[in-house]
Amino acid sequence: MTRRTAVVNISGDHEESVLQLAKHLGVAKIRRKVFSVIYGRGSRPKSKKQIMAAADIPAKGANAQQVQDALDHLTKHHLIVRVDNDGKVNDGSRYLYEKDATVRANRQAIVRYADNRKAASTVATKRNPIVRVVPNFRSVTKRELKKKKHLAILYLTASPPEEGRLRVDAEVRLVQESIRKSKFRDNVSVQYSPAADLNSLIDGLNEVKPQVVHFSGHGNESGLVTDTGKVGGRAVDGLSFDLLAKAIAATDTPPKVVVLSACKSSGAKKDLLPAVQILISMRETVSDIAAVNFAHRFYAALASGQSVDASFRQGKVAVESASINEADIPEMLHGSDVIPRKLILV
Questions:
Q1: 36 within some domain
Q2: Is residue 230 located within the same domain as residue 178?
Q3: Threshold 0.70, pTM exceeds
Q4: How far apart are CA 284 and CA 293, in angstroms?
Q5: SS3 state at 136
Q6: Strand residues in 194-247 grouped as ranges (E)
Q7: 58/13: higher pLDDT
Q8: Ramachandran region of residue 194, left (φ > 0), alpha (ψ -120 to 50) or beta?
Q9: What's the number of domains the chain is made of?
Q10: Domain containing 188 — which CATH number?
Q11: Domain containing 250: what range?
Q12: The pLDDT value given to residue 205
């Protein structure tokens, strides 16, 4: 028996081969009947007459030619194997048709993709390496945004050259990028005020009416190091926690949260807590790395609708990931009547 062997690159590109076979199988009625008979029970090759009888296709009119066309198509595209009839079947047929080993092994997938071209289009192959970016957030409708509160953040930084430069500019950039990627980014605004001093704070409180005031810079147990803004002269100035608290209280809409990303800023607890609901500060000296990682993760969480408590905890996780020895330096302080896990600012 002379066998014509189908050559299919099933090992080199399995998915591509299966999809091509499915495409050539198609959904033509007679072709599918012929295919089903050949891949039905039994392993012996069948003649065209046997196939027509098994498929219940009458041998009249154009049926015989249609079946022959189907057999030629399936053979051409390596879905079946045609062999010479050397006496196996005594019905006068020249050729017999049998299963192809590769197609038999992948028959279910071939038939499935032939029936469902949409499913076939989602299969990645070497020629078509489908890459889909699946967002890790649900899209937000305009109606939902309207129901949300607007969060205004006054972001003050000060790093006068006499005190040693801090990467507060990089910190602000990362915070802004994190907010832009957040779920409720359209409901969050950041007013950035570099080289800040007491006047910067008061002007920001009046103009922005922020729910959060953030300060990044140098500090100590008694206050913050601010910047006079002078060029060519001494730029260092100071702002005591007592004066900071008075400035915050001297507004009709004081912020709910104050974040002091400065060394040993937990000393502000006594002065600030009567003026604000929550104070986030640093127990000890804090590095640039820890401050930057805390800030961008904290605000990303706030802008995604997380509570102040959850946002703070996410910030601490970011600090621990970047600088494990500083994991316990950020501290959240609040009055006994405040529940941070219930305070959601967006």
A1: yes
A2: yes
A3: no
A4: 16
A5: coil
A6: 212-217, 223-227, 236-240
A7: 58
A8: beta
A9: 2
A10: 3.40.50.1460
A11: 142-342
A12: 97
